[in-house]
Design goal:
Helices cover 40% and strands 14% of the residues. It is α/β, with parallel strands linked by helices. It folds into two domains: 213 residues, 3-Layer(aba) Sandwich (Rossmann fold), CATH 3.40.50; 80 residues, no CATH class. The strands form two sheets. It has a six-stranded mixed sheet with strand order 3-2-1-4-6-5, sandwiched between helices. It has a four-stranded antiparallel sheet with strand order 8-7-9-10, with no helix packed on it. Helix 1 packs across helix 2 and helix 7 packs antiparallel against helix 8. The relative contact order is 0.14.
Length: 316
């Protein structure tokens, strides 16, 4: 009797492992299909590559789609000048390992040209990346940009198609999106228009971490637990840096933290964590009840309508 029970337990546990792998295999297959579709359908595509976890997952899929050293489009980074050095250093080394062309364009250069003007010196440059990105599109005549946005990140991104059309001003029109029935993508472009393509739209944060664990994808160190000076500001752990000093009355603490998402230093916060491996991050992600952007991004404490407006203006 006991033997039959043990066998039954084993038989119910084993398929779940295969189901998990089958789920990741399906997501990977879809992403590879989309990456190849972009290469076939467009003349001058580029892959947006920040050195963050989502872009590194896309890069692994691109490796599988085309082979190391054979990725058929350049990697493009829009640098605010306020990015975490651990991430930009990793970006450079990973691009070199893959023998991929890396193009970096800076918000600071847009500021020198006068196309970006800050309201005050301490204003976050994050939203102004849109201007620099549109300038890079014009400079290189890109007709498709592959990005790592996912629909589970926030509500405005959940509305967007995988192949997201942009007009000649680089703007997104959410009420005039093209249907994507049966995975048939309409890639028709008029002069001056381009597409934003999101191959991991259907992935979740948990999928990303499970895939990172399965594929043993190397990441910048700040994705794992480390000690960092922070201040608690309205429920967020704001890192203490030259760009984000403590305010009057705030107490600086040293906490064990990690970053769930990385971006501009001025708007990206870590979370308290002891997770030292990808497997640990999988467990923490399963228990999380707040989205990664909601828990870590100071600039996302805004309404869905505000983010949608930013996307209409050309934001990622």
């Amino acid at each position: 009797m006991n033997a039959r029970i043990d066998t039954a337990v084993l038989n119910t546990a084993t398929p779940s492992h295969h189901l998990s792998n089958a789920h990741l295999d399906a997501l990977e297959e879809e992403t590879i299909f989309i990456l190849r579709e972009v290469a076939a359908a467009f003349e001058r595509p580029a892959l947006l590559f920040s050195g963050g976890k989502d872009s590194l997952v896309m890069l692994r899929c691109a490796e599988k789609a085309f082979g190391a050293g054979r990725i058929p489009y350049p990697l493009l980074m829009i640098d605010t000048g306020h990015n975490f050095p651990e991430v930009t250093d990793f970006r450079d080394s990973r691009a070199a390992e893959l023998q991929a062309e890396l193009i970096v364009r800076s918000v600071e250069d847009s500021m020198k040209r006068g196309t970006v003007r800050l309201a005050h010196p301490g204003e976050s440059r994050n939203v102004h990346q849109s201007v620099t990105l549109l300038e890079a599109i014009e400079e290189f005549r890109f007709d498709a940009l592959i990005g790592g946005a996912r629909r589970d990140e926030e509500k405005a991104r959940a509305k967007e198609r995988i192949f997201s059309h942009r007009d000649s001003f680089g703007q997104w029109q959410p009420k005039a999106q093209r249907p994507e029935l049966w995975t048939l993508f309409n890639t028709r472009l008029a002069p001056g228009e381009h597409f934003r393509v999101f191959p991991i739209s259907n992935w979740t944060e948990l999928d990303v971490w499970q895939y990172i664990e399965r594929e043993a994808i190397a990441l910048p160190s700040i994705y794992y637990t480390h000690k960092r000076e922070v201040v608690d500001r309205r429920g967020l752990l704001v890192p203490v840096t030259e760009l984000t000093p403590p305010k009057d009355g705030e107490t600086v603490q040293i906490r064990d933290v990690r970053f769930r998402t990385v971006g501009d230093i001025t708007c990206t916060c870590p979370v308290e964590s002891q997770a030292a491996t990808a497997a640990d991050n999988v467990i923490e992600t399963m228990a999380a009840d707040v989205s990664e952007r909601g828990a870590t991004r100071m600039d996302d404490k805004t309404s869905e309508a505000s983010m949608e407006k930013r996307k209409k203006d050309g934001y990622f």
